[in-house]
Design a protein that fits this description.
It holds the Pfam family Ig_2. It is a single chain. The protein is rod-shaped, with a radius of gyration of 25 Å. The chain is α+β, with helices and mostly antiparallel strands. The chain has a 4-stranded antiparallel beta sheet, with no helix packed on it. Strands 3-4-7 form a 3-stranded antiparallel beta sheet, with no helix packed on it. Strands 1-2 form a two-stranded antiparallel sheet.
Length: 142
């Protein structure tokens, strides 16, 4: 598939897309705590396209468009991946070039996973105490 942008004198073909040097380029900035990011941290991405207004923004994670995300900012809580954005508007220029990809990686366990592990440990310790006090090892599966 080859896209020919109207009024585009200089295009470069990149992976079946025409990247125009005449179109504004989107830029992604990250608003977040210091890395590393952990599940539950709030990471906000902002798409900027300078020189023009009235953009509808499109967000992509690992080169796949994220449905229902057309605002200038998106908030991530645990979705690792390579993020980029682009824009579209009613007036010329109608499209922007894609931003460069920005890596966002969450590591470790989420708060919910820590709570589940803590709960499991408490249950195990309670069963162990009951088993020891009653002399019945059956509660622990022994």
């Amino acid at each position: 598939m080859w896209y020919n942008f109207t009024g585009c004198d200089s295009c470069t073909r990149v992976r079946d897309y025409c990247v125009s040097t005449d179109l504004p380029k989107a830029t992604v900035t990250i608003e977040a705590p210091d890395e590393p990011f952990y599940p539950g941290d709030t990471v906000t991405l902002k798409c900027d396209i300078t020189g023009y207004r009235d953009w509808e923004y499109y967000w992509y994670r690992n080169n796949t468009r994220i449905p229902n995300k057309t605002s200038q900012t998106i908030t991530l809580l645990n979705d690792s991946g390579q993020y980029k954005c682009s824009g579209e508007r009613a007036k010329s220029p109608k499209l922007s070039n894609f931003s460069d990809s920005v890596p966002v990686y969450f590591q470790g366990k989420s708060a919910a996973e820590f709570l589940i592990m803590a709960f499991q440990e408490i249950i195990f310790q309670l069963l162990k105490l009951i088993s020891e006090s009653t002399g019945s090892a059956e509660l622990l599966g022994k």
